Amino acid sequence: MEIRIRIPKTALLALAALFLSTGYKTYDNLFEYSKNLEIFATAYKQVGTSFVDDVNPGTLMRKGLDAMLASLDPYTNYYSEAQTEEAMIERQGEYGGVGCRIFIRNRYPVVSEVFRGYAFANADIRCGDIIKFVSGQEMAGKSTGDVGAMLRGAPNTSLTLIVERNGKPLEKKITRVSVRTKNVPWSGMINEQTGYIKLDEFGQNCAQEIETALTTLQKNPGMNKLILDLRGNGGGLLAEAVDIVGLFVGENKLVVNMKGRTTESNRKWMTRKPAVAPDLPLVVLVDAQSASASEVVSGSLQDMDRAVIIGQNSFGKGLVQNFYPLPYRTQMKITTAKYYTPSGRCIQLLDYSKRNPDGSAGSIPDSLRKAFKTAAGRTVYDGGGIRPDVMVDPFSGEPLIKYLLEERYVFDFANEFRNNNESLPAEERFITPAQFEVFGKQCAAKLKTQLRKKMEEALQNSVKDEELVKMIMNGVSDAKLEKAVLDHINHCGETLMYRMESEIIARYPDAEREYKHMFAGDPDLATALKTLNNPDAYNRILRK
Predict the structure, then answer these.
(1) How does 160-187 read in b/e, with b if 16+ C-beta sit within 10 Å?
(2) Is the dihedral of CA 461, 464, 468, 474 positive or negative?
(3) φ/ψ of residue 527, rounded to 5
């Protein structure tokens, strides 16, 4: 028997009202939407009644929704009733949970970061701990989203964890707390003249936190320059970003121009208050993880020639999202607009409307990036994030350091050090030559296999001759590869040891020590200080 699903007249009237109010091609759009809704509803019903096995209607619909939205961009998402809390976290940065970040390794969640002062830290959960069970449920094969949902919950509720550390199981009882992620985790003086503010995210009231930190720093009689650190900051509330810019440029200045398809999506965001530090020499630090609101702040200050931007090219997210309620306490987050900095540039890197053959979004090539002018006539470009005025190589020209960090060799070393040392050594530089030698040998032994594999792949892609590849690779012994890696590790030993010590210090409760260590060897900060300490160079950058 044929099953037909008709769209109710009320739904058609609602669609008609939508398109009449937005002024688009009303008839064509109304027909296409109503036709496709009817097709979808009929197919959904037919699968539910005819498929050979039982079908969970909720799961089927969720997969359809997720696939549909994924075809648009990564930021347009559907939230079920159970995920409403997750949507609240995105908007407010506050939740009942444990205070950690995780990643998946060998099918199990591994703790990658523990927030000081929260539930995991209170229970002595450490970086590198493998989460095996949460309240009796096996964690093998779970996604980070699945694990996060299980760890979150109402404040003052409890859960039991079985974690593995150094190959041994440990049972931990965790009491969830109200986690309010800190917008400004630290601010202070780097030296007698230079203030420093770290902004981790653009949550509620972060502009007020920045203003409080700034006015406190200004009480230091010698303070006459500032570094605002937006590295690793993935964004947040746009209104807070606009207010932060206002602290340095004053009121009634255009910060961002939002452009979308609806009247509500088109808006110019202007600063609202008088400046707190209108003339203070300012450097803003960014990196590849600085995104969205971070790019609004750094991009607008760059366009106004108000700050020197230092670091690495930012992420390139020039898209704006809004939340919309749906029936049964569900929600959607939808990309509704693009934002443009005061010079008129959009910094969105990936074009999700044009997909590569493999489904990935294509980036805008340099040849198609358009030039714009700052207030002082400097040339800036759209389509690729915020390009710093002064680029810094964070790995001091040593790609091996980047590889050791990305592949978590340094992460594992820091975990082992923490598990063998209950307190942090008092010495400023505390990794001994013997410890570094062991680390180097362990890395070289592991890397030789990975290096051989990569060399073989590169040769095969180049010469397309398996016999020739084998002949070449037979002439490269494992001993030679291992020695080459070890020599290179020793060559960049000073920079690598600084990175290793940074990872170790982050595993102890002393936040002050962590920042002071960063001030002593961070290449971005060193460049910022050098720039600020040379007023002529600072002013030349802003005028060129």
Answers:
(1) ebbbbbeeeebebebebbebebbbbbbb
(2) positive
(3) -70, -40
For residue 212 the two structure tokens come to: 């409080």
- List, for residues 443-458, the tens digit of each pLDDT value: 988 887 777 777 667 7
Q: CA end-to-end span of the chain, whole Å? A: 75
Pairing of strands 194-198, 186-189: antiparallel
Query: CB-based contacts of 229: which residues, under 8 Å, 6+ apart?
Result: 196, 197, 198, 199, 285
Q: At how many degrees (to 10) do helices 493-505 and 433-463 cross?
A: 110
Contact assessment for residue 402 and residue 451, using Cβ atoms and an 8 Å cutoff: no
The bridge status of strand 282-286 relative to strand 225-229 is: parallel
Over residues 248-255, the mean pLDDT reads 97
Output the CA–CA distances (angstroms, integers) from residue 380 to 80, 170, 297, 385, in the order listed. 42, 54, 15, 11
Q: Give me 157's structure tokens.
A: 């509720």
CA-to-CA dists, residue 400 to 220, 393, 410, 485, angstroms: 41, 13, 12, 9
Check residue 427 and report its DSSP letter. Answer: S
Q: Which two tokens stand for residue 230?
A: 């937006």
Measured distance CA(104)–CA(148) in Å, rounded: 12
pLDDT in tens, 462-516: 666 666 666 666 666 778 878 888 998 999 999 999 999 999 999 999 888 999 9
Tokens standing for residue 362: 């294509």
Helices (H), 464-522: 466-474, 478-491, 493-505, 511-521
Does residue 270 carry a pLDDT above 90?
A: yes
The predicted pLDDT at position 363 comes to 75
pLDDT digits 0-9 by tens, 72-116:
999 999 988 777 766 665 555 555 679 899 999 999 999 999 988
Question: Partners of 95 in the beta sheet?
Answer: 179
Q: What are phi and psi for residue 286, nearest 5 degrees?
A: -135, 160
